[in-house]
Amino acid sequence: MTNSIYIDQEEILKRYKQPDKKTHKGIQGHALIIGGSYGKIGAVSLSSKACLKTGCGLVTVFIPKCGYDILQISIPEVMVLTDIQEEMISNFTFDFTPQAIGIGPGLGQAVETQNALHQFLKTNTIPLVIDADGLNIISKNKKLLDLVQPKTVITPHPKELERLIGKWDSEEEKMSKAISFSKQHQVIIVMKGAPTRIIDGESVYENTTGNAALATAGTGDVLTGMITSLLAQSYETIDAAILGVYLHGLTADIALPETGYQSFIASDVIANIGKAFLSLKKMV
Ligand SMILES: NC(=O)C1=CN([C@@H]2O[C@H](COP(=O)(O)OP(=O)(O)OC[C@H]3O[C@@H](n4cnc5c(N)ncnc54)[C@H](O)[C@@H]3O)[C@@H](O)[C@H]2O)[C@@H](O)CC1
Ligand SMILES: Nc1ncnc2c1ncn2[C@@H]1O[C@H](COP(=O)(O)OP(=O)(O)O)[C@@H](O)[C@H]1O
Ligand SMILES: [Mg+2]
Fold first, then answer.
1. What are phi and psi of 198, to 5 degrees?
2. What is the per-residue pLDDT across 214-259, written as a single tens digit (0 to 9) for each?
3. Nearest of 241, 142, 244, 250 to residue 200 by alpha carbon
């Protein structure tokens, strides 16, 4: 039997943890965002900025060389590691141990990048969020799913979900296929849409925030950064997914009266993360 839960303010307050007064950047979590390719460095800029603005102490990105200046100039707070390749990632290499890793925004699907993801998944044990081209690469070679460690968060939009689980004829079939997939591979699926549902085996959590203003480029990349941030801050995996999706939607609800549906862009999600957190505080 499926256990379905609406994610409202009450559910969020059960999960939300206020930072300790004596905390410092060294214990607020260090997140790594891996992604970007020529022409899609913006996806990593959005994701890493959202990661910082969701409370992570330190954020490093791993990107192709062509993104170095872009990242350093657009977000000076983020640290940058680069691949040996100019336009795509060919080997995931980093010399520290992050508390969480987000992979996929703007990553592209070059053969070199596919191989790099394969090698990385073989040995990785760090909590992981996989999005966008990270998921598309896995869809092309489903054997990679056997290498994905339990409790990995995947964040497909409907097309990415279809590439992973196959087509469906009804909402019921989509849900039952997604639940089977979550159980079989022990992954938490953030099934993006209106509304977004989070699936953890038999448990289905339905988000109650967000609106059509979010239907704009890069809002998913931002969500990846937000969930990765919460994971790096030691939230339980399921709580990181639930809280990230709720806050992400809340930014659009807060901004809507000022931006309208049309002029809201992914950067407006990031700009309103602070207000979204503050509205949680008011509820306490
Ligand atoms: N500024 C940037 O650098 C951006 C980079 N992006 C990156 O671009 C790459 C490709 O991602 P895309 O998602 O654009 O391409 P995809 O080919 O994965 O998805 C686009 C397809 O999915 C369908 N689709 C998307 N959302 C849907 C929904 N809610 N319901 C039904 N169908 C839906 C679209 O109609 C289209 O056919 C990713 O790596 C992504 O991270 C995008 O996030 C856009 C912004
Ligand atoms: N009509 C809508 N109502 C609510 N949320 C939406 C709507 N359209 C898109 N979203 C949200 O916006 C985000 C889009 O993610 P995604 O498609 O991956 O964008 P991108 O890849 O461009 O970053 C998801 O979180 C999704 O739930
Ligand atoms: Mg996306």
1. -110, 125
2. 999 999 999 999 999 999 999 999 999 999 999 999 999 999 999 9
3. 241
Q: What is the sign of the dihedral through the CA atoms of 56, 188, 239 and 246?
A: positive
Q: Which residues contact 165 (CB under 8 A, 6 or more apart)?
A: 177, 178, 181
Gap from CA of 220 to ligand 1 centroid (Å): 9
Query: Which residue owns the Cα nearest ligand 2 atom 13?
Result: 220
Hey, which residues does 137 pair with through a beta bridge? none
Residue 210 in contact with ligand 2 by CB distance below 6 A: yes
- Show the domains of the chain with their CATH numbers: 3-283 (3.40.1190.20)
Nearest to 220 by CA among 130, 114, 109, 121: 130
159 in contact with ligand 1, CB cutoff 6 A: yes
Give the containing element (helix H, strand E) for 189.
strand 188-191
| Best residue among 47, 49, 107, 157 to mutate for probing ligand 2, ranked by most atoms within 8 Å of CB | 157
For helices 42-53 and 273-283, give the axis angle rounded to 10 degrees: 30
